[in-house]
Amino acid sequence: MQQKILIEVDEVFRKFDQNIGREQEIPGVFYNAGANVINQLIFGYRFDEEKQEELKKLKALMEFQETAFTTFKVQVQFFAPIVGRMLPGKSVEELLAEFTVDFYKFFDRQIEEHRSRIDFDSEENLDYAEAYLKEQKKKESEGDMELFSDRQLSNMCFDLWVAGLSTTHTTLSWIIAYVLNHPEVQKKVHEELDEVIGSDRLISTGDKNNLPFMNAVINESQRCANIVPLNQIHCVSKDTMINGVLVKKGTGIIPQISTVLLDETTFPDPYEFNPDRFIDEHGKLKKVEELCAFSVGKRQCLGEGLARMEMFLFISNFFNRYQVTPGSSGPPSLEKETMFNATPRKISAILTKRYL
């Protein structure tokens, strides 16, 4: 997987280099790269020049989802379903149907194409869809198809695509936004990169343990950005007492990760961006259990490993290659635009190559 991500790192460089020394938008380039990574994982191909129209359609669907579900009616319906349905406008169910239908057409087409060309006798799996379909055929021969239907595969592809793309892309944008607002942090990042890497070679995961401050910047950006301000809704499986209050079985609950990420007992001055809080007295990266940006327990994000790899490879290589300065309007705003994810506002910057 690392090699696939590094291919996208090179592609990101190619696009940024086209406007080197000029003001340019940052997040969109990372968005396309993230889409390529997740689609290679699921379906085994990236969106090259011939498939850009396909990517534009999927991107438009993602943008529709990010805005449509923030309407007043939808927000009320999430927390008070009966009241929400009485308000004018499209319901959650109608918006979901509108959003998912074209996405599922894309998934269904990919699944059929995979099925038509798979070598079911081969033990090698080229992507997630191929591995699933081979297991599906095995279960079919055993008379057990309950958990391996095509619909289930489409549902899983949907979860991987939507959750795996928007959160990683948003976090990458926040890292750059915070660093642009703290030039002293970029200076320290470059000093570490010069000492450890010292060239324009591609940084790999093998370098990760030798770049503690780079990792600290990623951690602190995740903590401050808190990109999922309202976690997924769950329900209590049995009557539970919490601090003397009875929470009855079936009650809807929303875990508030922000209360942990902004706990001043663990993180003094929690609203200050300070990567050094993740560095110990020996200059090593400090493990802080309260950094729970991917949630905790059985509902912890399954894509954490891939997301962490993407963030490290994209951001470490980005800052190793470029000196980044704010655009004409100055450092980007750190005010959040809250949708499903808390996204930063427009980020424009001027990139200068550090190695010629």
TrEMBL record:
One Gene Ontology term of the molecular function aspect: iron ion binding
InterPro entries in the cross-refs: Cyt_P450, Cyt_P450_CS, Cyt_P450_E_grp-I, Cyt_P450_sf, Cytochrome_P450_fam2
Cofactor: heme
Entry keyword annotation includes Heme: yes
Protein residues bound to heme: 301
Keyword Mitochondrion: no
Keywords, sorted A to Z: Heme, Iron, Metal-binding, Monooxygenase, Oxidoreductase
Xref: PROSITE patterns: CYTOCHROME_P450
One GO term of the biological process aspect: xenobiotic metabolic process
GO CC terms in record: cytoplasm
Family recorded in the similarity comment: Belongs to the cytochrome P450 family.
Protein name: Unspecific monooxygenase
Gene name per UniProt: Cnig_chr_V.g17818
